[in-house]
Amino acid sequence: MAVSACQEDPKLPANEVEFEATVAGITAEETSLTIHVNLSRKAEANVTLTFLLETSGVEAGSDFTLEPAPAGNQVTVTVPKGEQQGSIVLSKTEGVLLDGDETITLTLADAGGKLVVGEKSQLVISFSEIIVAQATMDIQGGGPTYPNKVFIDLSASRQTAVERSAWDLGFSSGDNFSVTLNAANGMMAYELNKTDLTTVTSADTVGLGAKLSVGAVFAAINSDPIPAWASEAINWIDDPTGNLANTAIAPVSGTPSENKVYIINRGDGPGNPANKLGWKKIRVLRSASGYTLQYADINATTFSEVQVTRKASHAFQYVSFVTGELLVEPETEKWDIAWTGFTNSLNYGFMVPYYFQDVILQNTSGVQTLQVLTSTKTYEAFAESDIPSDFGAQTQTKIGSSWRTGGGPSGPPSLRTDRFYLIKDAAGNIYKLRFTALTQSGERGRPAIEFALVKEGE
Questions:
Q1: Is the same domain home to 199 and 243?
Q2: Are residues 374 and 428 in the same domain?
Q3: Of 248, 243, 363, 283, nearest in space to 315 by CA
Q4: pTM of the model
């Protein structure tokens, strides 16, 4: 079926549509899989996409279902005007027994005359875990207001985009009982010498409006003289390296009287101008299953509580002050790196909080990374025999913003082409990865990567 392009503005490149990957797997433990198809920019009108469905070893309806449901061998998906992504949800029928060699193939056959079909026009889905040998990926950060944090699983060639303003606090599943702030929103926390939320009022926040934000710190370090409190501001964010012993909120004590009240600036959500998320007062205690979070507006005389249960399958549990407890990141073993905006630190003679876009964080539960300069070995030539025996010390910001130049006070960023990265996942698979784009159609928040398996885990 022929596909034509209809460009509303001849100055713009063709709006392409394609799958995120060419292969995908749904494991025996998973009950569903969401398949994304992405546009290179927002649809200028409603777009109807038609996919051809082929199966091998399974039957639609009896072994699996799709949403939207197929009509014969075709699946139709509508991408509304202003949106940039469509999706199909594959669900396995409860109780069905599969051997793992069954497949489903979806082929993007028609883009409604509005779009151009990209290179990744066909997706083959296996009913088993896969280890992808090589792939390219356009990271779905959401654009210049970087609304998403995107978790990436290289071996599955899968990305999970989560709205960065969907949560506020992360609660560690480890024995450290640490609580983290949402660094993607620039959150900050200030400890009070109080343990009762009901006694905290706006009087306890006097002066904090000019201190407790990334913007306020930036203004302070560019003033003359620099106020003395500016050197303390680094303590109001979590250690950017991911050290859970050095978080803005002290590790939660088993002795209730030691757990203080904190004033929280929730930071900024996506928007232009940025959406101010507001302030809260909180206190965290230990509970039999994990944590008890107490929170309220600053002048409230009562407070709400959320019970947070630690789960071994996830490194963190998350809470939103708006919606309560929720899942954010994938299971610990199902992501390797994440792209996000991030509250990092910068040296102005002393370390201060500073917000960076386009930061790569790594999963600190078993994932290791290492930078390789092309002057040592090119990406194309790098092979299993070149893998070092030691990847060195690891932090969540080991890649960080090192893959791009500039940004912040040094000017507009650009892509570095003199380096790539080795990523060893929790299963021992070692990939080489390089960044191929910082922007798409000149727009920030849509970087691209390519990666290839160098050594399969044992």
A1: yes
A2: yes
A3: 363
A4: 0.92
